[in-house]
Predict the 3D structure of the following.
Amino acid sequence: MAMKAIAFTEQGEVDVLRYQKVEKPTLGPNEILVKVKSCAVNYLDIHARRNRPEIKQKLTETGTPHILGSDIAGEIVEIFGTHPDLTIGDRVLLAPCIPCGVCSDCINGYENLCDTQQLLGFQTDGGYAEFVKAPAKNAIQIAAPLSFTEASALPIAYLTAWHMLITRAQLKAGENILILGAGGSVGSAGLQIAKLVGARSFATASTDKKLARAKENGADFTINYTDIDFSEVILELTNGRGVDVVLEHVGEATWEQSINSLAKNGRLVSCGVTTGNIGKINIRKMYQKQLTLMGSALGTQTELQTLVHLAEQKKLIPIIDRTLPLENADEAHQLLETRKNFGKVCLIP
């Protein structure tokens, strides 16, 4: 049987995306088939479409079109095997990480460190489609108060921000945090999480419109980083002290300013390098101020379940920039590429 999907057979610009008929997934043992109700778009999708070698390898090896989409919410329509906790018609969110399940990291509950993990929509076909298959263990049931669109906003952006701020940096009430790119999905999620724990947030963005939205979503102070050294503004706003935590996901272009923004015993946590992989650091300043620099990648399914519960209780309300029909995936990519979104852009089959 066939289904409609956004797929591509070669990497390139948005014009490689095609709304077309493809084969409907066939289930294997311990898999479920989900009718997609919403799939959020991530910058990782753009990298995959453009040039990620894993995608090129998949296209070469399989000879079939690739379907993007890691943030997926929908209804279970088919189950392979016996899974007492799941039934046809369940509303579910899919955890995006598919770990091996047998390595020491997986056994110890750190599946986001698994060396052989796969990501839905990356190493596998994803949710830019009417249907998607996934391991049954990846299904997280969602209650009716949480819409499919809100649920689909959680996995990559909110899970990444939660793991960064709560698990890694251990952000606490009363601390100061600098959030870069507050208009992006991780940045806007970080703002909400910082407000939830009672931290005071300083947010950067490139336009006054995004800064106004950041203010609405919990930022205590906002900084337009265009043609300005934001670390100087941070030091001025904090009477020379700096911030306790920096949420960094820009990379080379902001690295030195981010480190300069830290207070003594400050923690910088990074999850991305959109402007380059290489960042300089003054080692003497690092040890004299006793700074901590840490990396962070995605998060665990247990953390994602926590986020779902918080969202169901309306303690976290996923920020949605807009929803678009699935066939307008090219428009969604262009919105992210030109940074015209504030929060998540979601595709609706």
Observations:
- The first helix runs from residue 43 to 50.
- DSSP finds twelve helices and 17 strands in the chain.
- The radius of gyration is 20 Å.
